[in-house]
Amino acid sequence: MAFLETWPIFVPVEAPVRSSTEAVTTWVAARWTAIASCTIVVSVIGYVQAVNLASWPTLANDDEGTYMARAWAVQTGRGAHHSLANYTYWYDHAPLGWIQLVPWTWLTDAYRAGGEADIAGRRIMVGYALVSTLLVYIIARRLGCSKPVSLAAMALFGLSPVSVDYLHQIFLDCIGLPWILAAFALALSPKRHLWAFAASGACFAVAVLSKETYLLWAPALVYQVWQRADRRTRAMCLVAFSSVAAALLAVYPLYALLKGELFPGRGHVSLIGAIEWQLASRSSSGSAFSAASDAHAKVLGWYHDDRWLVGGGILALIPAAATRRLRPVAAGVLVPALYVMHGGYLPAMYVIGVLAFEALIIACSAQTLWRLDPLGRIATALRQSAVTGRVLGLRMRSHVRLSLAISWGRLAWRALLLAVLVPLSAEVVPAWGTADSATTYDVNTALFQSEQWVEQHVPKTDPVLVDANVWIDLVDDGAAPSKVVWFWELSADPDVGRRYPEGWRQMDYIVVTNTIRVNLLSEYSSVASVAQAAAHSTLVVRFGTGTNFVEIRRIHPYSRTTSNPPWWLPGYGKLRPPTSGPEKGEQL
Amino acid sequence: MLSSLEFAAYGFAAFGLFVISASTLRWMLHAWRGPTATQGNVNSAELLQHEPRFSFSLIVPARHEERVLGATLWRLQAIDHPSFEVVVVVGHDDDETRQVAEAVAMRCGNVRVVVDRSWPKSKPRALNTGLAQCDGEIVGVFDAEDDVSLDVLRQVDGVLWRTGADVVQAGVQLVTPHSSWFALRNCVEYFLWFHSRLHAHATHGFFPLGGNTVFVRRSVLEAAGGWDGDCLAEDCELGIRLASLGARMAVSCDSHLSTREETPESLRAFVRQRTRWNQGYLQAFRKGYWLRLPTKRQILLAGYMLAFPMLQALSAILIPLAIFMMLWVRLPLLLGLLGLVPALTSAVVVAAETMALRELRRTYHLNVRTFDYVRFVLTTIPFQLVLVLAAARATWREMIGERGWEKTAHAGAHLQPTAFTASEV
């Protein structure tokens, strides 16, 4: 029978009128324990995430500076061709990630002169992290977990060393994370309202437009909508979810179409060209199962950071798959994990999305096991069977003894579970404590010192070759965007080519950070001109030691290859630090 | 570069179009808004258990309906209810229809024929003539081509008793999805209107009534002065007027009890019917009874509802125009993106309508095949253009003061062959 056949008449019912303050008070009063306990856990997570965020982890990755620079371009309108990025936007990622940072960067004045934009951005990301952890709590509750278990899920996710490493970095994955979690929370709406599913579709679209990898969560989310929706309205809920998501996702290709940049062509970037590059040309990280692959190294890295959550989440797939209610969320771990095994380009921050869902299925599986009570069931079964009941005397004597046997059974089961959990947490908590205390290290001072040095010593008219982290700070402090050149774009962006037809020969300085050195090693062909610049340069000043040292070098365009190329430059030196040489901060 | 004024105008237009699409979406999906949407409603099986309490007079205005009237009256007189009469109103200039009506009246004690001598002829005038001859406590309206459920009166009786309502609108459904290219869309339109949208409107205490299967307490109807003889959408106008006078309105749509109708037989007939409705809505808007509704919210909503056919037509022109301009005229990027918002909302509306077609098929057991879904989606834009044509025609006729009644002809394609057909008379 169709849904509407059972809809006979509408009888207007007078709803009780309540004032809005009254409504809020009732809402809070009904949830004050949850609000109080969430506040405590969120504060702890917030502290761990926020403490020392300027100095850990290292700004060795160019991504953070890139997205801050792009948000700057959107906020100030000083991007290339008033576009979505500081250099020509070439559809490498959907733009909603950094666009949604703009209100926050504007509110917090993230680009003020003298400040470090990346650090301001990381503070915003702590906010994103806390919203994500809160959503983990809400999802756990909506999956039927008790409040303590839901709080544990939240703490598992928020305090894992991997989260502490990644979650407050300005990565698109971390920006998209609250959206994909909100999509799940809405798909789990207890009232199963049509508009909740539509809103879930909208959140999913925002997540994907923030970071495309969240597309991998589509099967899990559709499954969740299908499972949660009422049988009678299921079809309409699925249509609402998918059509809203599709309509919002369509904005991205339509934007490209409007700009005439959908299809590849001569002399302009294109969306389809970028997708082809991502799928086909970009070097695959290989399968996680082959020991030599990059993916293998990354998976090992995550596992090294936190084997309990990363590995435990995979193990929890088994009990989660056995529980009907948990299957969609388990699919949210399984599908992305299969992608890692299949191979393809694997960014390191990919783990953060999976991690939230791993924390969820671990907590929910624990909750299921806790409530399982197999011994009590056995006792009940024994009682119900006539023979065993008589033999054990359970049936013949009083019911008191019987119920005692049942509750003893439950107690024994829970004691057994605790006997596993307590030693496990005695292992995990100190391990996490040690790993999280790594956050007290200071690895970014050299970078900030070098930025100051450039501002004080390099004339504003001299073109400087830099990485994205340095780029945004120099521009914030008044350098012309045309005089500070992001090393990636030296030979990639046609605008830079027009401004500096002779390429690296027109650069005066290069600020060599670890980012540049790593990319010279791994992506040599794309940044060959940067290597040329470095080869024709002499060291002016060096800051820091270890891997995070920064060199500021003067470029001598028309000299021959210098007799003394930097030791870290592939193809010239021996890639081994000299045993003696200028020390930290020493000016030559 | 556009001036900021043009920019604001464009943004305002885009926002307006978005509001039209979004409100369409919200109202058409009201019935599916949640699994508990039907909670608190009374089950029709339960209603049928009630002992009937009211007496009914069913007015059937008929004009040039000799082909279908016989079957309709034969079915109406057989309705399962202890106390009702059928009042057939025929024009003094329409002998063929009158003969059919009198033939039935001769055989059935509860059918009476009333001759309407008013001029010019219109449905509301015929209804008023019929009303003067009614004896029942409740006055119902049926059209000459309606395929009526035999349980409808007992159900309405129960609704009136349970809710204390003064006005009850029961369901009407078009059931001939294959009679023309636009029939499928027309059927879904009716389905969404009666099964979802009316309920959404009813939560605010008022809605425009439909043309038939409407039941009003005779005392209320006489106090309000009956139908407006000059209005082309007398049903809609009556609903708003009664609500503004404080009448309590209820909706009752059960697929088993809905009145089944056929779609207009040709595009020409369809455009005429729509023109009449749109013009009637315009007349009701201009008449201004909606301004007397009790709350501000109701007034805003009623004004929007009466203007809706026109706004819908406007958006049907502007959205394709915006897409055309985006792609070929090369608007500034931001304006182009603004124009996308209503267009994408409309795309969601089409997706939801397609799913509503599936629900319609399951609710009324209509024969709808996979290809029909494709046809349904493909006819979206042509159908909208027909609505635009009707809206434009209605506006034009209202402007030049052309307010004649363009009648919809009926072939009787939806009726089952019965023992009593027109040829037998």
What does this structure look like?
The complex is a heterodimer of chains A (588) and B (425). With 588 residues, chain A is mainly alpha-helical. Chain A is 59% helix and 4% strand. A 5-stranded mixed beta sheet of chain A has the order 3-2-4-6-5. In chain A, α6 packs parallel to α9. Chain A starts with 8 loop residues before the first strand and ends in a 33-residue tail after the last strand. Residues 6-13 and 582-588 of chain A have low confidence and may be disordered. Chain B has 425 residues and is of the alpha/beta class. Chain B has 2 domains: 15-28 and 297-399, no CATH class; 44-267, Spore Coat Polysaccharide Biosynthesis Protein SpsA, Chain A (Alpha-Beta Complex). Chain B has 14 helices and 9 strands. Chain B starts with a helix and ends in a 26-residue tail after the last helix. Residues 419-425 of chain B have low confidence and may be disordered. The chains are: A mainly alpha (588), B alpha/beta (425). β1 (9-10) of chain A pairs antiparallel with β8 of chain B.
Number of domains of chain B: 2
H/E series of chain B: HHEHEHEHEHEEHEHHEEHHHHH
Terminal CA distance of chain B: 74 Å
Strand order of the main beta sheet of chain B, please?
3-2-1-4-7-5-8
Mean pLDDT of chain B: 88
Q: Roughly how many Å is the radius of gyration of chain B? A: 22 Å
In short:
The complex is a heterodimer of chains A (588) and B (425). Chain A has helices at residues 20-30, 32-50, 63-76, 96-99, 102-107, 117-142, 147-159, 161-166, 172-187, 194-210, 218-228, 234-258, 271-281, 294-305, 307-315, 317-322, 327-342, 351-372, 374-384, 386-392, 399-436, 445-457, 468-476, 494-499, 514-522, 528-535; strands at 9-10, 464-466, 484-486, 509-512, 537-543, 550-555.
